[in-house]
TrEMBL record:
Organism: Streptomyces boluensis
CDD domains, per the entry: SgaA_N_like
InterPro entries cross-referenced by the UniProt entry: Anthracycline_SecMetBiosynth (IPR052164), Glyas_Bleomycin-R_OHBP_Dase (IPR029068), Glyas_Fos-R_dOase_dom (IPR004360), VOC_core (IPR037523)
Official protein name in the record: VOC family protein
Domain VOC: 13-134, 148-270
Chain segments annotated as transmembrane: none
Pfam families: Glyoxalase
Amino acid sequence: MADIPVAGYAQGVPCWIDALLPDVEAGKRFYGALFGWTFEAFETGETPGATAPARTPARAYSEGRAVAALAPKRDGRMPTVWNVYFATPDAYALARTVRDAGGQVVTAPVPVGAYGTVALVTDPEGAVFGLWQAGTYPGFEKSGEPDSFCWTEVYSRDGGVVDPFYESVFGYGGTDMPEIDGTAYRLWSPAGTPPGPETAIGGRSLVSGAFPAEMPAHFLVYFNVADCDAAAARTRALGGRVRAEPFDIPYGRMAVLVDNQGAGFAVLQDPEPPS
Protein backbone atom coordinates (compact mmCIF):
# COMPACT_ATOMS: atom_id res chain seq x y z
CA MET A 1 0.00 0.00 0.00
CA ALA A 2 1.21 3.48 -0.79
CA ASP A 3 2.51 5.82 1.88
CA ILE A 4 -0.06 8.58 2.42
CA PRO A 5 1.65 11.97 2.00
CA VAL A 6 1.21 14.74 4.53
CA ALA A 7 1.33 17.59 2.02
CA GLY A 8 0.62 18.16 -1.65
CA TYR A 9 -2.23 15.67 -1.90
CA ALA A 10 -2.91 14.63 -5.47
CA GLN A 11 -6.47 14.36 -6.76
CA GLY A 12 -8.23 11.28 -5.43
CA VAL A 13 -5.87 10.70 -2.48
CA PRO A 14 -7.59 10.46 0.94
CA CYS A 15 -6.61 13.64 2.75
CA TRP A 16 -8.95 13.92 5.76
CA ILE A 17 -11.54 12.10 7.86
CA ASP A 18 -14.16 13.16 10.33
CA ALA A 19 -16.73 11.48 12.54
CA LEU A 20 -20.30 12.77 12.74
CA LEU A 21 -21.38 12.14 16.34
CA PRO A 22 -24.37 12.94 18.57
CA ASP A 23 -21.98 13.89 21.40
CA VAL A 24 -18.55 15.30 20.54
CA GLU A 25 -17.43 15.38 24.17
CA ALA A 26 -18.19 11.66 24.53
CA GLY A 27 -16.29 11.07 21.29
CA LYS A 28 -13.27 12.90 22.64
CA ARG A 29 -13.25 10.68 25.71
CA PHE A 30 -13.60 7.49 23.64
CA TYR A 31 -10.98 8.22 21.00
CA GLY A 32 -8.68 9.93 23.47
CA ALA A 33 -8.62 6.72 25.50
CA LEU A 34 -8.43 4.40 22.47
CA PHE A 35 -5.79 6.20 20.38
CA GLY A 36 -4.27 8.67 22.84
CA TRP A 37 -5.55 11.61 20.82
CA THR A 38 -5.70 15.15 22.15
CA PHE A 39 -8.20 17.70 20.93
CA GLU A 40 -8.80 21.38 20.32
CA ALA A 41 -11.94 23.19 19.17
CA PHE A 42 -11.89 24.94 15.82
CA GLU A 43 -14.20 27.38 14.09
CA THR A 44 -15.91 26.52 10.81
CA GLY A 45 -17.21 29.97 9.96
CA GLU A 46 -20.75 29.26 11.14
CA THR A 47 -22.63 31.91 13.06
CA PRO A 48 -22.68 30.80 16.71
CA GLY A 49 -26.02 30.35 18.38
CA ALA A 50 -27.35 29.50 21.80
CA THR A 51 -26.12 25.90 21.51
CA ALA A 52 -22.71 26.81 20.08
CA PRO A 53 -20.55 25.03 22.71
CA ALA A 54 -22.28 21.69 22.07
CA ARG A 55 -21.98 22.17 18.29
CA THR A 56 -18.29 23.04 18.15
CA PRO A 57 -16.19 20.55 16.17
CA ALA A 58 -12.93 19.25 17.62
CA ARG A 59 -9.73 18.57 15.73
CA ALA A 60 -7.83 15.48 16.90
CA TYR A 61 -4.06 15.28 17.24
CA SER A 62 -1.66 12.37 17.64
CA GLU A 63 1.83 13.30 18.78
CA GLY A 64 0.91 16.92 18.11
CA ARG A 65 -0.06 16.30 14.48
CA ALA A 66 -3.59 16.59 13.08
CA VAL A 67 -5.23 13.25 12.28
CA ALA A 68 -9.03 13.71 12.21
CA ALA A 69 -12.00 15.77 13.36
CA LEU A 70 -15.07 15.01 15.44
CA ALA A 71 -18.13 16.98 14.40
CA PRO A 72 -21.61 17.27 15.94
CA LYS A 73 -24.55 15.94 13.97
CA ARG A 74 -26.80 18.83 12.92
CA ASP A 75 -29.83 16.56 12.58
CA GLY A 76 -30.68 13.41 14.53
CA ARG A 77 -31.66 11.68 11.28
CA MET A 78 -28.08 11.90 10.01
CA PRO A 79 -26.00 8.73 10.39
CA THR A 80 -23.35 8.40 13.06
CA VAL A 81 -20.41 7.63 10.82
CA TRP A 82 -16.79 8.20 9.87
CA ASN A 83 -16.44 10.12 6.58
CA VAL A 84 -13.43 10.12 4.27
CA TYR A 85 -12.48 13.09 2.07
CA PHE A 86 -10.54 12.91 -1.19
CA ALA A 87 -8.30 15.72 -2.37
CA THR A 88 -9.10 17.77 -5.44
CA PRO A 89 -7.80 21.06 -6.83
CA ASP A 90 -11.35 22.06 -7.80
CA ALA A 91 -14.26 20.81 -5.68
CA TYR A 92 -16.83 22.61 -7.85
CA ALA A 93 -15.67 20.96 -11.07
CA LEU A 94 -15.30 17.54 -9.44
CA ALA A 95 -18.81 17.73 -7.95
CA ARG A 96 -20.14 18.27 -11.48
CA THR A 97 -18.09 15.32 -12.69
CA VAL A 98 -19.55 13.14 -9.93
CA ARG A 99 -23.08 14.07 -11.01
CA ASP A 100 -22.32 13.50 -14.69
CA ALA A 101 -20.87 10.06 -13.87
CA GLY A 102 -24.05 8.90 -12.12
CA GLY A 103 -23.41 10.00 -8.54
CA GLN A 104 -25.25 12.61 -6.51
CA VAL A 105 -24.24 15.81 -4.75
CA VAL A 106 -25.46 15.71 -1.14
CA THR A 107 -23.90 19.00 -0.06
CA ALA A 108 -22.74 21.38 -2.78
CA PRO A 109 -19.21 22.75 -2.43
CA VAL A 110 -18.98 25.41 0.27
CA PRO A 111 -15.99 27.29 1.67
CA VAL A 112 -14.97 26.48 5.26
CA GLY A 113 -13.40 29.75 6.26
CA ALA A 114 -9.89 29.99 4.85
CA TYR A 115 -9.27 26.27 5.42
CA GLY A 116 -10.63 25.11 2.07
CA THR A 117 -13.78 24.05 0.25
CA VAL A 118 -15.77 20.93 1.10
CA ALA A 119 -18.52 18.91 -0.57
CA LEU A 120 -20.31 15.65 0.20
CA VAL A 121 -21.27 13.39 -2.70
CA THR A 122 -22.30 9.79 -3.35
CA ASP A 123 -21.41 7.13 -5.87
CA PRO A 124 -24.16 5.50 -8.01
CA GLU A 125 -24.96 3.03 -5.20
CA GLY A 126 -25.26 5.74 -2.55
CA ALA A 127 -21.92 5.42 -0.70
CA VAL A 128 -21.13 8.86 0.74
CA PHE A 129 -17.68 10.44 0.52
CA GLY A 130 -16.25 13.93 0.72
CA LEU A 131 -14.27 16.20 -1.57
CA TRP A 132 -11.70 18.60 -0.13
CA GLN A 133 -10.12 21.49 -2.01
CA ALA A 134 -7.36 22.75 0.25
CA GLY A 135 -6.98 26.38 1.21
CA THR A 136 -4.74 26.96 4.20
CA TYR A 137 -5.40 23.41 5.44
CA PRO A 138 -4.19 20.52 3.24
CA GLY A 139 -5.38 17.70 5.51
CA PHE A 140 -3.58 15.02 7.50
CA GLU A 141 -0.37 15.97 9.27
CA LYS A 142 0.09 12.34 10.31
CA SER A 143 -1.13 9.21 8.54
CA GLY A 144 0.01 5.66 7.96
CA GLU A 145 1.49 5.53 11.46
CA PRO A 146 0.05 4.11 14.70
CA ASP A 147 -3.11 5.88 15.90
CA SER A 148 -3.78 7.58 12.57
CA PHE A 149 -5.60 6.94 9.27
CA CYS A 150 -4.01 4.33 7.03
CA TRP A 151 -6.59 3.03 4.50
CA THR A 152 -10.14 3.23 3.21
CA GLU A 153 -12.34 1.06 1.03
CA VAL A 154 -15.85 1.29 -0.33
CA TYR A 155 -18.22 -1.64 0.15
CA SER A 156 -20.41 -1.98 -2.92
CA ARG A 157 -22.91 -4.46 -4.30
CA ASP A 158 -21.86 -4.25 -7.95
CA GLY A 159 -18.25 -3.62 -8.89
CA GLY A 160 -19.32 -3.33 -12.50
CA VAL A 161 -21.19 -0.16 -11.56
CA VAL A 162 -18.87 1.53 -9.10
CA ASP A 163 -15.46 0.68 -10.57
CA PRO A 164 -16.00 2.70 -13.77
CA PHE A 165 -17.44 5.54 -11.65
CA TYR A 166 -14.40 6.00 -9.38
CA GLU A 167 -11.92 5.33 -12.13
CA SER A 168 -13.48 7.97 -14.36
CA VAL A 169 -14.10 10.55 -11.59
CA PHE A 170 -10.62 10.33 -10.04
CA GLY A 171 -8.64 8.75 -12.86
CA TYR A 172 -7.67 5.78 -10.69
CA GLY A 173 -5.82 2.83 -12.08
CA GLY A 174 -7.43 -0.40 -10.86
CA THR A 175 -5.89 -3.72 -9.89
CA ASP A 176 -8.02 -6.80 -9.22
CA MET A 177 -6.72 -8.82 -6.28
CA PRO A 178 -7.17 -12.51 -5.40
CA GLU A 179 -10.47 -13.16 -3.66
CA ILE A 180 -10.48 -13.35 0.13
CA ASP A 181 -13.14 -15.69 1.51
CA GLY A 182 -14.82 -15.58 -1.89
CA THR A 183 -15.04 -11.77 -1.98
CA ALA A 184 -13.61 -9.89 -4.96
CA TYR A 185 -11.37 -6.93 -4.16
CA ARG A 186 -9.98 -4.13 -6.33
CA LEU A 187 -7.19 -1.71 -5.46
CA TRP A 188 -7.08 1.88 -6.69
CA SER A 189 -3.94 3.88 -7.42
CA PRO A 190 -3.85 7.62 -8.20
CA ALA A 191 -3.69 8.80 -11.79
CA GLY A 192 -0.16 8.93 -13.11
CA THR A 193 1.15 6.12 -10.90
CA PRO A 194 1.64 2.46 -11.90
CA PRO A 195 -1.38 0.54 -10.58
CA GLY A 196 -0.69 -2.04 -7.91
CA PRO A 197 -0.35 -2.65 -4.17
CA GLU A 198 2.73 -0.43 -3.85
CA THR A 199 0.85 2.70 -5.01
CA ALA A 200 -2.72 1.90 -3.89
CA ILE A 201 -4.48 4.47 -1.69
CA GLY A 202 -7.83 2.68 -1.30
CA GLY A 203 -9.97 -0.06 -2.66
CA ARG A 204 -13.36 -1.58 -3.40
CA SER A 205 -14.78 -4.63 -1.68
CA LEU A 206 -18.23 -6.16 -2.06
CA VAL A 207 -21.09 -6.34 0.43
CA SER A 208 -21.14 -10.09 0.97
CA GLY A 209 -23.37 -12.45 2.91
CA ALA A 210 -21.41 -11.54 6.06
CA PHE A 211 -23.29 -8.23 6.09
CA PRO A 212 -26.97 -7.67 6.96
CA ALA A 213 -29.18 -7.67 3.86
CA GLU A 214 -30.13 -4.03 4.52
CA MET A 215 -26.50 -2.84 4.75
CA PRO A 216 -26.10 0.08 2.30
CA ALA A 217 -23.00 0.78 0.24
CA HIS A 218 -20.51 2.62 2.44
CA PHE A 219 -16.89 3.55 3.06
CA LEU A 220 -14.89 1.98 5.87
CA VAL A 221 -12.05 4.00 7.44
CA TYR A 222 -9.00 2.18 8.85
CA PHE A 223 -6.62 3.29 11.60
CA ASN A 224 -3.15 1.88 12.02
CA VAL A 225 -2.53 0.44 15.49
CA ALA A 226 0.42 -1.19 17.22
CA ASP A 227 -1.75 -4.03 18.60
CA CYS A 228 -5.03 -5.01 16.92
CA ASP A 229 -6.20 -7.35 19.68
CA ALA A 230 -5.51 -4.76 22.36
CA ALA A 231 -7.44 -2.13 20.39
CA ALA A 232 -10.45 -4.46 20.13
CA ALA A 233 -10.35 -5.20 23.86
CA ARG A 234 -9.99 -1.51 24.66
CA THR A 235 -12.98 -0.67 22.44
CA ARG A 236 -15.14 -3.07 24.43
CA ALA A 237 -13.90 -1.65 27.73
CA LEU A 238 -14.84 1.85 26.54
CA GLY A 239 -18.41 0.84 25.72
CA GLY A 240 -17.96 0.14 22.02
CA ARG A 241 -18.47 -3.11 20.12
CA VAL A 242 -16.41 -5.50 18.05
CA ARG A 243 -18.21 -6.14 14.76
CA ALA A 244 -15.49 -8.44 13.38
CA GLU A 245 -13.04 -10.06 15.77
CA PRO A 246 -9.31 -9.64 15.00
CA PHE A 247 -8.19 -11.74 12.03
CA ASP A 248 -5.19 -11.96 9.75
CA ILE A 249 -5.09 -10.65 6.18
CA PRO A 250 -2.16 -10.39 3.74
CA TYR A 251 -1.48 -6.82 4.95
CA GLY A 252 -1.46 -7.51 8.69
CA ARG A 253 -4.06 -8.13 11.38
CA MET A 254 -7.36 -6.24 11.43
CA ALA A 255 -10.66 -5.90 13.26
CA VAL A 256 -13.86 -3.98 12.56
CA LEU A 257 -15.05 -1.98 15.54
CA VAL A 258 -17.91 0.34 16.52
CA ASP A 259 -17.49 3.23 18.94
CA ASN A 260 -19.80 3.88 21.89
CA GLN A 261 -22.08 6.08 19.74
CA GLY A 262 -22.41 3.76 16.75
CA ALA A 263 -19.72 4.91 14.30
CA GLY A 264 -17.96 1.98 12.65
CA PHE A 265 -14.26 1.86 11.76
CA ALA A 266 -11.46 -0.67 11.32
CA VAL A 267 -8.03 -1.04 12.87
CA LEU A 268 -5.02 -2.56 11.13
CA GLN A 269 -1.81 -3.80 12.72
CA ASP A 270 1.16 -3.99 10.37
CA PRO A 271 2.43 -7.51 9.62
CA GLU A 272 5.30 -8.81 11.71
CA PRO A 273 8.63 -8.30 9.94
CA PRO A 274 10.26 -11.54 8.79
CA SER A 275 12.62 -12.98 11.37
